[in-house]
Amino acid sequence: MKRILSILTAAIAMAAMSLPALAQSRTNVRLNEVMVAADTTGTTTGWVELFNSSYGSVAIEKMFLTTIKADEIEAIKKGGMAMDTLAMTDARCYVVPRGDERNTKIAPRSHVVFCADANPALGTFHLPFAFEAGKENYIALYDVNGILLDEVTVPATLPIGNSYAVRDAVVGSGKLPTTGTLPADCWEPRDGKTVATAITPGNFNTRRANENIEKFHINDPHGYIIALFAMAIVFGALLLLFLCFKLFGMIAQRTTGSGEIEPAVVAPVASPEVTRPAAGGEDEALAAAFMALYQHLNAHDHESGVLTFGKRQPSAWSDKAALMRRLPF
Fold it and tell me: Is residue 64 domain-resident?
């Protein structure tokens, strides 16, 4: 039974340790917005925005951004070339470097922007390729193991100064798929002229309304449902704790025995018999008791009750004044 309990405890601990890893899966990182050309002068380059759709921080180091089509990537991998090698030999593929963990870790439900300026020497967030205005531009995101996480083809009809982004309704629904790419109808061009079509490299697609609160306001205007759910969770947790303690108590009783401690049996001790004086000796015993009481109560001489205090000369050890330095000398 002890072995079964140890195995169960270890299994629960391993499951608890694996939950953060599942919550921080890199498959939750998606392409969110792409800018091909910000203006006609070319002074402002394009950029790619990644979105962490999970509720845990995700490190994106060793992930790949590339403009190489997926079928070509598969052919390259079948030829025996790894994605790391491809990133070092082909400027169309970029790997997020290690060693910049503070900046390459995306916070929950947050974004990070990479500049497509064909100048990776400027830092971690500068890609070795650039987009071409007036043409279709393909961009894909791969995980460290070469698995395709997301891809999108920006149409050639996208006007200069507009971005191509995932619809807010798709992002706010919280139902972004963890695998596979979004269909084309989930993407839309943005001109930045209104709040709904804002271009957000840095505003991180902030939304004024909280979708969850709005849903609660519609479905539960008086708060009865949320109150019932809250009480059900509290009492359910208490019931679960009671069952756990009860179960562990039963297991402990089976492993250690009945669990009931029987009181120790103490043998009765015979009380000593009271010896009564012999007949005719009671008067002598009473006289002896009375004499003992008289001597006890009248053992001291009569005193006046006056205390007399006598003054004595203190010694050098007990006289504190003799230990102090006398000033002036």
Answer: yes
Instruction: Give the distance, in angstroms, between the CA of residue 91 and the centroid of all CA atoms in the same chain.
Output: 39
In whole angstroms, what is the distance from residue 25 CA to residue 222 CA? 37
In terms of domains, do 156 and 223 share one? no
281, part of any domain: no
What are 35-63's pLDDT values in tens digits? 998 776 655 688 999 998 888 899 999 99
**CB-based contact 64:83 (threshold 8 Å):** yes
Calculate the average pLDDT of the chain: 79
pLDDT tens per residue across span 143-179: 988 899 999 999 999 988 899 998 876 765 555 666 5
Sheet holding 29-35, edge to edge: 111-116, 46-52, 29-35, 163-166, 187-190
pTM of the model: 0.56
Cβ contacts of residue 286 below 8 Å, gap of 6+?
Answer: none
If asked whether residues 187 and 228 sit together in one domain, one would say: no
Number of domains in the chain: 2
Q: Which domain holds residue 190?
A: 21-207
**How many Å apart are CA 111 and CA 51, to the nearest integer?**
5
Instruction: Find the length of the chain.
Output: 329
- Same-domain check for residues 156 and 242: no
57: CATH = 2.60.40.1260
Q: Is position 177 within any domain?
A: yes
- Among 256, 274, 294, the domain-final residue is 256
Pair (145, 248) in one structural domain: no
Residue with tokens 């108590």: 249
